[in-house]
Write a structure and sequence with these properties.
Helix 3 packs across helix 7 and helix 5 crosses helix 7. The chain is built from seven helices and nine strands. By secondary structure, the chain is α/β, with parallel strands linked by helices. The protein is globular and about 45 Å long.
Length: 241
């Protein structure tokens, strides 16, 4: 039986997606199954990482998972690694636009650890930061803290979540699987508003190249607790568990 919902704390970033409505019984059942597996890890703070190709559905699944866990009575914090990228004003200092440059330089892992992951791992910390730099407005939110309960569940989505720099933090690792071409197609459609006619090229020549470097160097898939084929939103399927 599910308890009264205690709420989900979201990032202040303008790079936000709403939690999607229930798409199918199959999807809702899978979200419940994964949520129960996370909660079975016990009391105390839990850190959940959700990774996968760009536009694989990481954020949507993270929101769905957060809503279920919150409704079960645990406080939940939601964050995305996109809110911890280096500011655009510094992009002249390094390559961020090629595929390899994006993989090496786009994300500020020191900020992720200092503001978000280290506090969540520290039993003495009472707050954390869910957003460093807003990826759209470039506003600095690093001084805006969110209360951190002793039994909070932090759910973080984002590409490269299991790089060596931050891989050790996670209690539960989830991979949303789609093939490369579907990732490019979905991403280009999603990002038309800001990328225009360049959207497909950005996804194919920057993000996809970066993700292939990540797969080759970090080899994250063998460490996953669950891999979900999310090719069809209404019919996600567990591939490995």
């Amino acid at each position: 039986m599910r308890s009264q919902q205690v709420g989900v704390h979201h990032s202040a970033s303008s790079w936000q997606q709403r939690c999607p409505p229930a798409a199918s019984v199959k999807r809702s059942t899978l979200v419940e199954e994964i949520a129960k597996r996370v909660l079975a890890l016990g009391q105390g703070r839990l850190l959940v990482g959700i990774d996968g190709f760009t536009a694989a559905g990481k954020t949507s699944f993270g929101h769905e998972l957060a809503d279920w866990i919150s409704a079960a009575g645990r406080p939940v914090l939601r964050a995305t690694l996109d809110d911890f990228k280096r500011p655009w004003r510094d992009r002249h200092l390094y390559d961020r636009e090629s595929g390899e440059g994006y993989y090496r330089n786009a994300y500020d892992y020191e900020a992720v650890k200092r503001l978000l992951l280290d506090p969540c791992r520290s039993s003495g910390a009472t707050s954390c930061v869910l957003c460093s730099i807003d990826p759209l407005t470039q506003r600095d939110h690093s001084s805006e803290v969110t209360p951190l309960g002793a039994d909070a569940v932090l759910i973080v989505d984002g590409v490269f979540a299991f790089r060596p720099e931050i891989n050790e933090y996670w209690d539960f690792r989830l991979w949303m699987q789609v093939d490369a071409e579907l990732s490019v197609q979905r991403g280009a459609e999603r990002d038309q508003n800001w990328a225009g006619s360049e959207a497909e090229s950005i996804h194919r020549n920057r993000y996809l190249v970066a993700e292939r470097i990540y797969l080759q160097e970090a080899d994250p898939l063998p460490t996953m607790d669950v891999v979900i084929d999310n090719s069809v939103f209404t019919r996600p399927q567990v591939v490995t568990s």
